User: Fold ABC transporter permease from Rhodobacter calidifons.
Amino acid sequence: MTQVLPRRSRPAGNYAAVALFLAVYVGVLVFVFAPKDIFAVQSPTALLQTD
Assistant:
């Protein structure tokens, strides 16, 4: 006689944690490997001097 093993249902919290980890990981990779011009920020005094 064969026994059927009960299926373990994974809580949604595990998927949410994995999704959050992947989002942060990809965000860090984008920030690290992006060209430096994308995140360059000028100070307001530098903007006033260019006018």
Residues 34 and 47 are 24 Å apart (CA to CA). The chain has a mean pLDDT of 78. The chain is about 55% helix and 0% strand. The helical segments are 12-33, 44-49.
